[in-house]
Write a structure and sequence with these properties.
4 helices; alpha/beta; five-stranded parallel sheet; seven-stranded mixed sheet
């Protein structure tokens, strides 16, 4: 039997999630928002296949904010979409997974390679709360003119500074300063720009 982790907390799981606190994703409003995002992402992919320019309003409806001249090649996988902002002139290649339980901010003039993962959700390390399905999230911030190579993974709470490059397949576990190249798992700086 699961423990009642929120006996003294009158907020809904959605309210806890939006506050960045631990929550359980069994709230009907959470499920509704996720399903809405799945439908919009599918509609965007279908529309993009016919006319990329005509599909842009669907992308703007799916995401929290989309700057001018942004291109996002589908498929695009999100939890909610509404917690994602993309700055002007950013290019996102195929198959971005952006789990936006917390905010994901992508700056201007970025290049996001194929199969990149931006993962804000976190789970407890302790077995019991994890078994009880507790989760939380921490925001991801990507500065301006950042290049994320294909297959890069950015973990919860990470900030990547302006002009930096994340090598293909790198796993970014901690903040990256501006003007560096990082590679590997975990990602580490290999040169300054």
């Amino acid at each position: 039997m699961a423990q009642d982790h929120f006996a003294d907390d009158p907020r809904s799981n959605l309210e806890r999630m939006l506050a960045g606190d631990l929550y359980i994703a069994d709230d009907p409003e959470i499920a509704r928002r996720q399903q809405h995002a799945v439908r919009l992402a599918a509609r965007y992919q279908a529309a993009y296949a016919e006319d990329a320019v005509a599909a842009r309003p669907l992308l703007a409806e799916l995401l929290g904010a989309v700057g001018a001249d942004v291109e996002v090649r589908p498929p695009l996988y999100v939890d909610y979409g509404s917690n994602i902002t993309i700055g002007a002139r950013t290019f996102v290649n195929y198959n971005l997974t952006a789990l936006d339980v917390a905010a994901i901010t992508i700056g201007e003039d970025c290049q996001i390679g194929p199969n990149v993962q931006l993962l804000t959700p976190t789970h407890p390390l302790e077995p019991r709360p994890r078994r009880d399905k507790l989760e939380a999230a921490r925001p991801i911030t990507i500065g301006d003119n950042v290049w994320l190579g294909g297959g890069a993974i950015v973990l919860p709470g990470v900030t990547i500074g302006d002009n930096s490059v994340v090598g293909a397949g790198a796993v970014v576990t901690k903040d990256v300063p501006a003007n560096v190249v990082v590679v590997g798992n975990p990602a580490r700086p290999v040169r300054e720009l």
